Automatic annotation (TrEMBL):
It comes from Micromonospora sonneratiae. This is Uncharacterized protein.
Length: 122
C-alpha cells in the first residue's frame, strides 16, 4: 500500500513523526523502553516482542541513536539522556560512558531488527 492510500490522519501522524528531531526520538525510546527496565536482557526481550509486529519504529529509533552519536553533542547531553531519560545508572556518569551505552543500545536494536529480517519481517 502506497502512502497516498493511507487515511489522512495516519498519514499526517507519520509525517509528524518523521519530522521529530533525533534527540526527541531517542528520549522517547529511552523513556519507553529503559526507564523501568532492570537489565539490558529485559530491554532486548521487550524489543523482540515489539519486533514480532513491526520493526518500522525500531528502525526509526536506531537511526535516531546513530544520528546523535554521529554528531558532537553539547557537553552533558548524552549523560543526561542516559541518567534522566533512560533512568539508567552507569558507573561513570560521563558523556563518553553514555556514548558507549547508547552504542550498545544501537547494537541491540540492530540485532533485534536483523533477527526479524532473517524471519522475513519488514
Amino acid at each position: 500500500m502506497g502512502i497516498s492510500n493511507v487515511p489522512e490522519p495516519l498519514r499526517r501522524r507519520a509525517e509528524e513523526a518523521a519530522r521529530q528531531p533525533a534527540i526527541e526520538v531517542v528520549r522517547s525510546f529511552l523513556g519507553g523502553h529503559l526507564a523501568d527496565a532492570e537489565t539490558l536482557d529485559e530491554v532486548r526481550n521487550d524489543l523482540r516482542r515489539i519486533a514480532q509486529t513491526t520493526v518500522r519504529g525500531l528502525r526509526r529509533d536506531l537511526a535516531a541513536i546513530e544520528s546523535i552519536l554521529a554528531e558532537p553533542a553539547q557537553p552533558g547531553v548524552l549523560a543526561q539522556l542516559v541518567a534522566w531519560d533512560a533512568n539508567w545508572v552507569l558507573d561513570d556518569a560521563s558523556d563518553a560512558a553514555a556514548a558507549v551505552f547508547l552504542r550498545r543500545l544501537a547494537d541491540l536494536l540492530s540485532e533485534v531488527i536483523a533477527e526479524r529480517q532473517a524471519d522475513g519481517q519488514r
